[in-house]
Amino acid sequence: MNKFGFLILIIISLMTVSCSGRKQKLDNKNLIPEKDLVSLLTDIHIADGLLSLPKINSWASSLDSISSYYQVIEKHGYTKEILDKTMNYYFLNNPKKLNKIYDQVLGILSEMELRVEKESILETARTSNMWTGKDFYSIPSLSGNDSTLFNMTLPRSGSYTLSFSATLFPDDQSINPRVTLYSCSPDSIDTGKRQYVKSINYLKDGRPHKYKLTLIIPKNTIRHLRGWFYDFDNSPSGLEKHIKIENISLSYSSIMPV
Length: 258
Known about the structure:
Layout: H1 4-20, H2 34-51, H3 54-59, H4 65-75, H5 80-93, H6 95-128, E1 137-139, E2 149-154, E3 158-168, E4 178-184, E5 195-201, E6 209-217, E7 223-231, E8 243-253
Antiparallel strand pairs: 1-8, 2-7, 3-6, 3-8, 4-5, 4-7
C-alpha cells in the first residue's frame, strides 16, 4: 500500500495550519462525514497507485499529481478547502480518530488487493489450462452417455500434467477402477504404438480425491492424447457404476525432467 498520496494531502492541509498558527482550534462544522472521508481517501490511494503505472502516468502527463488528486476530491462532491479543513480538524483536535479513519482506508484497500489477487490466480488458472474436453464426467449420466473417453492433440514437446478429482462411491461394482492414459501418433490413433502412463487406482470411499498424471512428449514430436477417466477389469454388462470426475486441468511445461 502506497502512503504517498495520503501524506501529500496531510502536508497540503497542514500548510494552511502553519500559516494561521498551530494552536488555532478549528470548529467541526461542515466537515466531510466520516463515511465519505473514508471513501475519498481510498480513491486517492487508488489514484496514487494508478499514476505510478507508466502507461497511465504517460496518459495523464498533462496533469501534475496534485491536480489529479483534486479531481478525485471533486468527483466525491467536495472541494480542496473542505478536505483541508476536515484533515486539519482531525489532525489537531482528534488525531486518534484520524488514525482510525485511515485504518478503515487500509482495510478496504487490503480487501481489494486480496480480491484482485484471487481473481488473478483464477484467471491465470483458466488461461493456462489446456484441457479441451468436458468440464466434468458423472456416471450414471443424466444424458445416458456413460463414456469417459477423451481425445486431444498435444501440439508440442514438453511435459504435460493431467490433474483432476475423482469421487468413487461405495455402491460402485467395478473391479480395479482406475484412470487409463496414453499417447500415440495422430496418424495412427487406433493402430499405432501407444505410450502409456502408469495407471492410478481410485479409492472407493465416496469422497473426492485429487489425482495427477504426467506425460512426457519427446522433442520435435506431435502426439495424440487419449484415455478414459473410468476404466476397470470386469464386464460392464449389468454393472452398477457410480463415479464423478471434476476439476479437470491439463498444464504444460517446456522444461523436460532430467
